[in-house]
Amino acid sequence: MKRNLIIILLGTGLLGVSLMSCNKNKIITPNDAVTSAQVYSTAAGYKQALAKVYGSFALTGNTGPSGSGDVQGIDEGTSDFFRLFWCAQELPTDEAVIAWGDPGVPDFHVMNWSSSNPILTGLYYRSLYQITLCNDFIRQASDANLSSHGISGADVTNIHYYVAEARFLRAYQYWVLMDLFGNPPFVTDATVVGSTIPAQTTRAVLFTYVESELKTIGGSLAAPLTNEYGRADQAAAWALLARLYLNAGVYTGTPRYTDAITYAQKVIAAGYTLIPKYDNLMLADNNVGNTEAIMTINYDGAKTQGYGGTTFLKNAQLGGSMPTPLYGTNQKWAGIRVTKNIVNLFPAPQDTSLTYFPNNKNIDTRAEFWTRGQSLDINDVTSFTDGYAVNKFRNVTATGATGTDLTYSDIDMPLFRLSEMYLIYAEAVLRGGTGGDNVTALNYINKIRTRAYGSIAGNITSAQLTTSFILDERARELYWEGLRRTDLIRYDQFTTATYVWPFKGGVKAGTGVASYRNLYPIPDQDRAVNPNLKQNTGY
Q1: pLDDT tens per residue, range 224-272
Q2: Which stretch of DSSP H or E encloses residue 389?
Q3: Tens digits of residue pLDDT in 259-297
Q4: Residue 173 burial by CB count (10 A; 0-12/13-18/19+): exposed, middle or buried?
Q5: Residue 209 in this model has a pLDDT that exceeds 80
Q6: Residue 172 C-alpha from the chain's centroid
Q7: Is the CB of residue 17 less than 8 Å from the CB of residue 243?
Q8: DSSP label at 456?
Q9: Distance (Å, whole) CA 166 – CA 181
Q10: At what angle do helices 154-180 and 203-217 cross, to 10 degrees?
Q11: What span, in angstroms and rounded, lies between the C-alpha atoms of 71 and 94?
C-alpha cells in the first residue's frame, strides 16, 4: 500500500467533507466532536490538518460516477478537482471527445458552454474551496497560534514548511482560476472570514500575486527531491513559475520567455531524470522510483476511493471490445476518446492486434491508442467506437500485477513532470527568450524522443525544431494530462479557424468560434450572491 500524506488524513477524521469507505455505498461522516482547538493543539495535529489540504485534491465524498446513487445529491462528476479540471482543459480541444450526455458535458466539444454550466461551476467552487482550506491552515499556523499551543523548537520549523506548502497549493489553485476564469474573487489568510464580500481581482493582478507568492515561499520549501512524495518542494514552485511565465503573454499581454527559461532550467538542474519507459508513467505503481514526477496528486485504490481523478481516466477511457483485465479494472464507462488530429501526429502503427498492447507496436511508444473495434473518424460523438480509445492510464504495475482495487485507481497524477520543463525551455528559447540556447533546447527535445522511440531513430535536427513542432510534441508527450486548452490558446489556435478538429464549434469538419471563449464565464451562481463580480466579456 502507498504511504503518503493523504493516507495520514484517512486515519484522523479531519476531512471537513464526507469520505467514502471501502464500501462505495457507505458514507463516513466527519467527527464533529473534534474541534479546531483540539486539532491544532499539537504538532501532529498540524500535519494531519495539512493532510486535509492535500487530500482535497484527491477526495470528494460522493458515491456515483455520474450522480446516480449519490446519497448526498452531489455528482462526483461536478465535485472532484482533477476530473473537473481535466474536462475543462481537454474536452474542448482536439485531445478528447466524450460520449456522455450528462448536464454540461456535451457543451465542451461543441464549444457552446454557458455561465450556468455545472462542470465549470463545480470546478470554480472546488478551487475556491481548496483556497479556503489553505487560508484557514495558514491562519492557524501563525507564530502567535503556535506559541499559544506551546509548540516550539523543531516542530515550529516543520510547521513553517507546512505553511509554505499551503501557500504553494493556494497559488496553484489561483493559477487554475486565472488560467480558466481570468477574474475570480480573491481572498487570502489576511481576509477575516465573514467580514466582507470577496472583491473581484483581475487576471493581471492575480498573475503578479501568484508570481510573488511562488518567489516568496521558494526559500521556505524543502529542497528538490527531499520532501515526502506528493508534497510540494522548491522544484514544484519553480515548475509552476516556468508554466506561468510561458503563458505570461496570454495572462498579462507581456511575454516573459526569459523567465520561463530560467525557472525551467532550475527544475532541470535539480536532479530529475526521465523514467526509462513512457508506458510506465501512468501505472498503478508510478509512485515507486519515479524520478520524473515533480509533484503528484496521490491516489490509492484502497484508501482514496472516488470516481474522480485517475479512476475517472482509467475507467472512462474503456468501452467496446477493450478487455478490462489489461487495465486492472472491472469497469468500462465508454466515455472518452481522442480525435484523429492527435492520432495523426504519430507514425502509423505497425500492428493493430492485441499482441502489441498498448502501442500496437508503434515506433513512437507514446501512441497508446486502442484501435480494434474503433474507427479513426468520428461521425457521432456519442458513439464510443467513433474515435480511437486510449491505453495511457492502466491500473496495473510495471510487472503486470493488478492494482489494489478493480474499481478505484492507484495511479498517481503528475501535476508537473520533467518532460514538460524540457518542452517549456525549448519553446521559450524559440520564442526569443534569453539565457538558453538552441543546442540545449534540441538536446532536451531529443531526450524526450529517444525515450519515446527507444533509440535515436526519432531524434530531430535543429532545422526541424520550430514552435509548431513544439506544440505537436507537447500533444504527443502530454496528451490527457490537462494542458491542451492552455497550449492551444497560447498558440492562438483554440478558438480561431486557423486550426480545427472534428466537431470543433459543433461542426463535423470543425470551425472557429468567438474569441471570448478563450476564457470561461464566472458562474451565475456566484454572481447571484456576490455583487462585486462582473461577468467576463461575451457571456
Answers
A1: 999 999 999 999 999 999 999 999 999 999 999 999 999 999 999 999 9
A2: strand 389-390
A3: 999 999 999 999 999 999 999 999 999 999 999 999 999
A4: buried
A5: yes
A6: 10
A7: no
A8: G
A9: 22
A10: 160
A11: 35
For residues 91 and 77, give the distance between their C-alpha atoms in angstroms, rounded to a whole number. 14
Three-state DSSP at 427 gives helix
Cα separation of 205 and 186, whole Å?
10
Q: How far apart are CA 339 and CA 324, in angstroms?
A: 22
Q: Which amino acid is at 349?
A: P
Q: Of 81, 71, 536, 125, which is closest to residue 307 (Cα–Cα)?
A: 81
Close Cβ partners of 357 (under 8 Å, ≥ 6 residues apart): 326, 391
Q: What is the DSSP string of 82-138?
A: HHHHHHHHHTTSTT-EE----TTSHHHHTT---TT-HHHHHHHHHHHHHHHHHHHHH
Amino acid 496 reads: T
End-to-end CA distance of the chain: 47
Exposure letters 383-405 (e unless 16+ CB within 10 A, then b) = bbbbbbbbbbbbbbbeeeebbbb
| 149-155 long-range Cβ contacts below 8 angstroms, 24+ apart | 149/40, 149/41, 149/42, 151/42, 151/43, 151/46, 155/43
Task: Tell me the helix, strand and coil percentages in the chain, rounded to 5.
Answer: 45, 5, 50
**Type of residue at 86:** W
Assess contact for 49 and 158: CB atoms under 8 A: no
The SS3 assignment for 255 reads coil
Q: Can you tell me whether residue 390 is helix, strand or coil? A: strand
Q: Give the C-alpha separation, 57 to 49, whole Å.
A: 14
Contact 242, 424 (CB under 8 A): yes
Query: Measuring CA to CA, how many Å separate 87 from each of 94, 114, 153, 319?
Result: 12, 15, 45, 19
Amino acid occupying residue 367: A
Stated length of the chain: 539
Nearest CA among 257, 246, 253 for reference residue 182: 253
Q: Which residues contact 443 (CB under 8 A, 6 or more apart)?
A: none
Quote the cell numbers at residue 511: 470551425
Spatial CB neighbours of 36, under 8 Å, sequence gap ≥ 6? 140
Cα dihedral 42, 234, 273, 478 sign: positive
